[in-house]
Structure formats: C-alpha cells, structure tokens
Specification:
This protein has two domains: 9-144 and 342-498, FAD/NAD(P)-binding domain (3-Layer(bba) Sandwich), CATH 3.50.50; 153-208 and 254-337, FAD/NAD(P)-binding domain (3-Layer(bba) Sandwich). Helices cover 31% and strands 17% of the residues. The protein has 16 helices and 20 strands. A hairpin with a 4-residue loop joins β5 (120-125) and β6 (130-137).
C-alpha cells in the first residue's frame, strides 16, 4: 500500500505578498527563520500595487520613504512613485531577497483552523490543505473593494466597475461617465480620465481637504548620485521622515491645523474660480479628521466644462444611469466606483477559527483589537500585518509594517529558543494597549475633528489609526516581551510523537 503523501507544512505561512508580507519574510530570514511560505491568491506579488492599476495610480507618500529601509531604490523617476514603479520595485525586492523559492502563487486561502492537539494551524487553500506552526495574515487593510448596495445596480445596461478592478478593455473616450466616491483613488483617476470623456459626473458625499502634491521628476543626476553614493539617498529618506513625523504633533493638537487649513483653502481658490463649486468642495471639519487628499490637478479637473460635481446622494441606479435624491436622473454610459475598501475588518479574519471554534471576526464584533495591532488574545501563533490601529495619517505605513515584522520575528524566535509550542498576548496586555491607543487618541483630530470617518468603528472607537508617533510604535516592538504573553508548552502527546 502506498503511504499517503504528507501535507505541505511550514514553520510560518505568510498570507499575502504586498509590502507587509515581503517585509515579514525578509525580517524572518534576517532572524534565522527560513522555513516559511508566501501564499498569494494572485499570480504575482504586489498586493494593492498589483491590483490598483487604474489611470493615474501613484503613492501619496514620497517614494524615498514609501519603500523598505533595507532596500532603497535609486531608480525612482518621480518624487511620488507611480503604481507601475511600485509594482516593479516589489518584484525586484522579491528577486534580490531570494524569495521566489518561497512563493506559492495562485493559492487562495479559504479557511484557517487551530488544532489544539497538534498545536498548529490547518489551512484550506485552492491548492489543497496544508499546515503551519505560525501564520501571518499579511492581506492588508486595502485588499477587498467595497461597492455600495444601491437599488437597481443590476439593471444598469452600461459598464460598471470598481477602481481597484479597472476595466482596461473599455475605452472611455467620448463616454458619459459617472464616478461614485471622491476618496484617494478618485482623486488620482478623475484628472487622468477627464480630458478624454465627453461628460464626467462626480458624486461626492462629503468634501475632503485637498493639499498640493508638488510632484516632480527625479533627474538623472540625482539618480546617479543615489546609485554611486547610497548614503545620500538614506539621508534624503531621513529628511523626509523627520519632516513628516513632526506633523503628528498637529494631528494630536487640532488647533495647530488652522495654518495648513488656510494653505489648503488658498490652494482651492487658486484651482477653482467658481465660488459655488468652491463651496461644495469646502470641508466643515478639521484637516486630518478624514484622510487628507493629495493632488496637484484634481480640483482643477473638477472645474473643467465637461465635469459636474453632484453632492446629492444616489437613490437608485437605472438601466441608463443614476437617479439622485433630488429626483434628477443622470444618463451615463459607464459607472466607476471609487468607494474604497472593506476596512471594518481584515480579510480572512472571518475565516480564522480559534481554539474554541469562533472566528476572529466573531470575537471582535464591531470593535477589532490586537496587541500592538499584531496579535490577538485567544488566537495562538497567528499575527496580523496592518491590523487594528496600524494605519497612519501623517507618514509612511511601511515603517509600521517593518516594526510589526520585528515583533513577529521576536515572538517566533522566542518560541523556538525555549522549545515552546505557541504564543499569544495576554488579555491584560491587549487591554493595556487598547487603553494606550484610546488615551493617545483623546482630543486628537481623528477623534475630535468634527467628522465621521473610516478611522472610527461603529461604536465611535478608533480602530484603524495609530494616534502616536512611529518612533513610539517602533520602541514598543523592537524587543519581544514574554511577560506580555501566554507561552504554551508542547502537549505531552505531541512530545511523545516527536521523541
């Protein structure tokens, strides 16, 4: 009789290959942990920079900072890298770090279940079952697009799609296009498509603060300097980091936002001459309360003759267009949803079953919480990248991902070093971290800025933003603290099998 083929098993399964997944893989290898697999549902690495290939897609943090500290890129052609540059960068880092052999592409993870006897995770995937001692959910907070449930959507006879799933086979030239949503993605693709379409109708629910990007090409002389003397780019990165990091002071003390608000209003006046349109675009809350939008040409695009900004809500979609809440019908050929992503929970958390059978989403309810935004009490050996309270409003989130990866490597390394089976934060440690977040967030622009944003959960609690400095967060993650964790010994039965 042929013996059954053993299931693929790894010490660590990393789910997702965006910035967070790659940062974790590199940090694990630096810590001497080499038995890991990078499971990716798509056919290439890249995360949001693979999927979000809409016209005008680019980063909103300077390229030198929106990159790994261990992999500076002297080839950036723009101050703010385009989506194509970022995707190529992640592919290049994957190659340079020797991660190709760890990739398992076209592998969708469907369910994860903790085995309390064997003390490992069972993963159901599109390529069959596998197991892992530790799991890192590096799916990110911007993986699953949200399309609002508008009555009649299935009746529309034209083309419709979300910006994160852009229809490149459709030529928008001469089309009547409706854009639903005015968030970070719309701010980039609206000016990119505006010159080509016949009519562009933009549906705005809430005006946002828009500040200039000041984007420009990086000249060959500077790129050559970076290539020859890498220290010069590291110094440039440090300057950008420090300039952005001090801004957290204003986010934490909303009265200090008055000065940048005056600058944003002057920018609006310079870009939009029509006072009625300016009124529609003027926020009534503190700058930073909702995500600040960065663009050199979005406001100017809205002022063009072929663009209409609608502030009435959408009541229904018909076969030929959209009807707003005033009863006005807008005939369009294409509807593009720039309506963001599912941020109330991380992808897969409703498929992660802990020791008691409940999913992580069920345990969280409407208020996600995790120790250091990375590990959840009651769920051994599983870690989150871009978990609760990891998002930032003032600087590059890559800094946070690298800090999280350091904590994860420390936790796994401690388990190995001491011959343990599993690790998870204590409930007291998780509560203390949540208390710190609440205390740090009290009185800040995110909680007291006069708006409703995705930063806050249904109960009004901040579940998404880290309200402190990135230096403070790094301090908390640089060393693994075993006293904040439950450390599980190996089960006797498993020890017997191993021996």
């Amino acid at each position: 009789m042929t013996a059954p083929t053993p299931l693929p098993h790894h010490q660590v399964a990393i789910i997702g290959t965006g910035f967070g997944g790659i940062a974790t893989a590199v940090r694990l290898r630096q810590a001497g942990i080499t038995d890991f697999a990078l499971l990716e549902r798509a056919g290439a690495v890249g995360g949001v920079w693979r999927d979000n290939d809409y016209p005008g897609a680019a980063v909103d943090v300077q390229s030198d900072l929106y990159s790994f500290s261990f992999a500076p890129n002297p080839h950036w052609r723009n101050t703010y890298a385009t989506r194509a540059e970022l995707f190529a960068y992640l592919e290049d880092v994957t190659d340079r770090q020797g991660l190709r052999g760890n990739l398992v592409l076209d592998c969708t993870v469907q369910r994860l279940e903790w085995d309390s006897v064997e003390q490992l995770w069972w993963l159901e995937t599109s390529q069959g079952p596998r197991t892992a001692t530790h799991v890192v959910l590096a799916t990110g907070a911007l993986a699953d697009p949200v399309v609002p449930a508008i009555p009649g959507a299935d009746l529309f006879e034209g083309n419709s799609f979300h910006s994160a799933r852009w229809n490149h086979d459709l030529d928008l030239t001469g089309k009547r296009v409706a854009v639903v949503g005015t968030g970070p993605s719309a701010v980039q693709f609206v000016p990119a498509i505006q010159p080509d379409v016949a009519q562009l109708t933009v549906f705005q629910r809430t005006p946002a603060w828009v500040v200039p990007r000041h984007d420009h090409e990086v000249g060959e002389t500077r790129r050559a300097l970076y290539r020859r003397f890498p220290i010069t780019q590291r110094m440039a990165r440090l300057r950008v980091y420090l300039r952005r990091e001090w801004k957290v002071v204003a986010f934490r003390h909303p009265a200090l936002m008055r000065l940048p608000e005056r600058g944003a209003r002057r920018f609006l006046e310079a870009q939009v001459g029509d006072p009625q349109l300016r009124a529609k675009l003027s926020p009534d809350f503190r700058l930073g309360c909702k995500r600040v939008l960065i663009s050199d040409d979005y406001l100017r695009a809205l002022a063009q003759p072929n663009v209409t900004l609608e502030t009435a809500g959408i009541s229904e979609i018909t076969a030929s267009g959209l009807t707003d809440t005033t009863g006005t019908h807008h005939e369009v050929d294409v509807i593009i949803f720039g309506t963001g992503f599912q941020t109330a929970r991380l992808p897969l958390t409703d498929s992660v079953h802990g020791p008691d059978g409940r999913t992580m989403s069920e345990v969280w309810g409407t208020s996600p919480a995790a120790y250091l935004g990375t590990a959840v009490a009651g769920f051994p050996n599983i870690f989150l990248i871009h978990g609760p309270n990891i998002g930032l409003g003032h600087t590059s989130v890559i800094h946070m991902f690298e800090s999280q990866a350091t904590y994860i490597a420390g936790a796994i390394g401690h388990v190995d070093e001491h011959g343990l089976a599993a690790v998870e934060p204590t409930r007291a440690a998780q509560r203390a971290f949540a208390d710190d977040v609440e205390q740090l967030g009290t009185g800040t622009v995110w909680t007291s800025g006069g708006c409703t944003s995705w930063y806050l959960g249904e109960n009004g609690r901040n579940t998404n933003i880290w309200p402190g400095s990135t230096l403070d967060f790094r301090r908390r993650t640089v060393r693994f603290d075993p006293h904040q964790h439950l450390l599980h010994r190996r089960n006797a039965r498993v020890e017997a099998v191993v021996s």
